[in-house]
Amino acid sequence: MGELRVRNINKDIIDMLRARAAREGRSLASLIDAVLTAEAMRPRRELVERLDKHHEEMRAKYGELPDSTPGIREERDRWS
């Protein structure tokens, strides 16, 4: 794991984070790691949510589409 040093953080924010870490029974470093990880993953999570919504819209519009894998295999085998 890498290291990150952050300076000039408001003392009240640090106190709130320490209190939250204590309430959750974890270290301040563990809490900050979790918060930073969640924030870093947010764009990916938002993309997945948009894709899920799009899939649901397509399913509502066209219904459940059949699995195309067998047809693709047949075509591939014909050309082998």
The count of β-strands is 0
3D shape: elongated
Helix fraction, binned, reads: over 70%
Mean pLDDT: 94
Give the SSE string. Answer: HHH
- Main β sheet profile: none
> How many structural domains?
1
Outline the low-pLDDT stretches.
Answer: none
Q: Provide the β-strand percentage band.
A: under 5%
Total DSSP helices:
3
Output the radius of gyration: 24 Å
In angstroms, what separates the terminal alpha carbons?
48 Å
- Structural class per helix/strand content? mainly alpha
Give a written overview of the molecule:
The protein has 80 residues and is mostly helical. The chain is 72% helix and 0% strand. The chain has three helices and no strands. The protein has helices spanning 11-23, 28-62, 69-78.
Draw up the topology in text.
Elements: H1 11-23, H2 28-62, H3 69-78
